[in-house]
Amino acid sequence: MNKKAFWMAAFTIIIWSSGFAGVRASILGGYTPAHLVLLRFLIASGVFLLYALWPGVHIKLPEKKDIPRIIFLGLIGISVYHIGFTFGVQTVSAGTASMIIGSAPIFTSIIAIIVLKERMDLFGWIGLGIGFIGIVLITLGTSEAAFTISKGTLYILISTIATSIFFVFQKPLLAKYHPIDLTAYFTWAGTLPMLVFLPGLWENMQNADFSAHISALYVGVFPAAVAYVTWAMALSAGNTTTISSMLYLEPALAIMIAWLWLKEWPNALSLIGGAIAISSVFVVNFVGKKRHIAKKKLG
Q1: Which residues fall within 8 angstroms of residue 1, CB to CB, at 6 or more apart?
Q2: C-alpha to C-alpha distance for 11 and 283, rounded to whole angstroms
Q3: Which residue segment(s) compose the domain that 191 sits in?
Q4: pLDDT digit string (tens) for 127-154?
Q5: Are the C-beta atoms of 43 and 248 separated by less than 8 Å?
Q6: Please, are residues 156 and 95 in contact by the beta-carbon 8 Å criterion?
Q7: Domain count within the chain
Q8: Of 107, 174, 99, which is closest to residue 143 (Cα–Cα)?
Q9: 215 and which of 25, 76, 114, 231 could share a cystine (Cβ 3.0–4.6 Å)?
């Protein structure tokens, strides 16, 4: 992975990790999950609209043949993922949900290998396996509920596969469009179906406290807008499977941010799982890379 892709992905993971605490703070402050997810993406859509209207900015209009794909990916990557997760966690424990979502790099890698013909060496697969073990340990450390198959579980599984499809299929479009322009179109397309949650939003906003408003503004501007742009930049500059392996860092970082923001301290098993998840990124991006370089020199 080149330096640009690595740092863009690292920045994205940090921002997305903070989103868990931000969303939780908003809900604890009075927002309902449905109204919060709508408000987040109304804010994100507004950010991209301001960018598009900014003097001197010229967003490239999508080619006619690309419009259906852009709309589809916006619906999959924004609408399906966030709505699926929102409704899923109503009946599924947070621990179970995090384990399912934590499998996203595996789905992303498999789809990328099939669709983009990307190759992954042995250390790449080992790294993915180590990362998944870390996710499971974090789950066991943060959840008292057993894994059960339910409608909510299926919702979250669908949302996880949806975001994996989104990561893979947007990459070819990044060769034609600037990451900011493309992310703007995805966000606008994905926000439209969320308008079904519009009734009651104003009343919910009036009932929420000031800290919830600040948190909602933060998760709308940064995790929902800025981070999607930097992730697109990372994907445009690097290998999809390798970059996606960095998503294993997200639960570990989310735990630390939640401790700083919400004073929620994880137990020892969660911390061990976080350390293992972080080590998987090291295996994929450093051990595997050095092995590849050594092979090239020998060749």
Answers
A1: 9, 238, 239, 242, 243, 285, 289
A2: 19
A3: 3-298
A4: 778 877 877 776 666 555 555 556 777 8
A5: no
A6: no
A7: 1
A8: 99
A9: 25
